[in-house]
Amino acid sequence: MTASTSMRWLRRASVIPAAALASLALVACGSSSDDGDSDASKGFALNLDDCEDPDAVTKKITDDIVVGYSAALSGPVAGPVELALAGYNARLKRTNDEGGINGVQIKVEYKDDAFAPDKAKANATEFLQKDKVDLITTFGAGQIAAFVDDQNAACVPMLYPSSSDNRFTDMEAYPWTLQFLPSSQLETKFLVDYITSNVDDAKVGIAENATASGKAMSDAFKDSAKDAGIKPVAAIEDTDPNAAATTLKESGANVVYHAGVVGSCGVFDTARARANFTPELVVKASNCVNAPEYIAAGKAADGVVIAKYLKDPADPDLASDAGVKTYLADLKGAADPNNAVTVSGWMQADLLVNTLQQAADSDLGLTRESIMLAARDQDYASAMLLDGISWKSSAERSGGVSGFAPVAWSTAEQRFVSAGDVLSVD
């Protein structure tokens, strides 16, 4: 995929064929709008007087819904981003092939930022000022931070970027921004509870990635640990994984929390093995789900625990699951449909489709305002979320999944296996 690639899927007539109605019904069943009126968004309100162009915010979208996506199409995380976009594009393609959102197609325009925040800001400036996109999104907390103020001033919804930075959950400061990844506060509280339930006298060491995403997760974990009465014995960046593993070993840590990002997760486990460091428990951020990293790490990664919320399409117990079947049909021909990163990208697009449909069916019709209001009013049990988990947002809740299940990496099976039941964090 090249920079500034514009993907437009084949159009069909606005009359949706009967075969498509079933899948649209599946989307509708997950919507939070039981009474069919989502405009009030359960108390959430937008002040359009603060917008640079209020008329543009309320203008009906009748041509294409244009999404500007600044992504690392090159650089250190290009591989995982490619997986995520495979899922994202496949899910949107199905909706467009079925007639779009009440006849309106979803068009995604990509610009490469090479995972550099300054390039993401330049891309966003083009999207907002030149391309006049309807929505914008990106990959990474540093990228969000680079242009979130400009995006909110323009009142262009930033929907479901791959980030969980607590800074951007402030709905008063960032009313037009809603992240996709689980709240770092809720996720790290879940992991701290798991630690205290499974390890007596836990001495926790932290390895944090030097990116904004890694630091945000590390800070959230420290807060959750403090609330549980745990003081980490050491914290170090994972830039040099060998040095990080050695430092944590020498600290006496018997539990490690790795605030990693894709590409750094398995490398740190390999470094632990090299340092002969085998703590009782290793837990990681939920974005450390890229199976090839753990396969490459071999036995060193065995038993690593993460908080899971998405179904595993490779799980034999889910072979007959309706949601998994739908997902695999969407990803037919994809390079790695079983990768959790691919599933995550599909889920982002699935949530976006649900949001757009909810906005289009509201009294306001399909506008930037109605899209943001719908995004703040979700209780959506996506087909690829674990049973018992939904994606929720409201005037009181910025957004995220309602629960997690602990899973542990199995070197023997080369996949994550259950390490406990789904627990609500809502």
Textual characterization of the structure:
Residues 65-384 form the Leucine-binding protein domain. It comes from Aeromicrobium senzhongii. Residues 1-28 form the signal peptide. Belongs to the leucine-binding protein family. This protein is α/β, with parallel strands linked by helices. It has 2 domains: 6-182 and 318-395, Rossmann fold; 184-308 and 405-424, Response regulator (Rossmann fold). The chain is 38% helix and 16% strand. The chain has 13 helices and 17 strands. Strands 7, 8, 9, 10, 11, 15, 16 and 17 form an 8-stranded mixed beta sheet that branches. The protein is globular, with a radius of gyration of 21 Å.
Briefly say what this structure is.
Belongs to the leucine-binding protein family. The protein folds into two domains: 6-182 and 318-395, Rossmann fold; 184-308 and 405-424, Response regulator (Rossmann fold, 3-Layer(aba) Sandwich). The chain is an alpha/beta fold and 426 residues long.
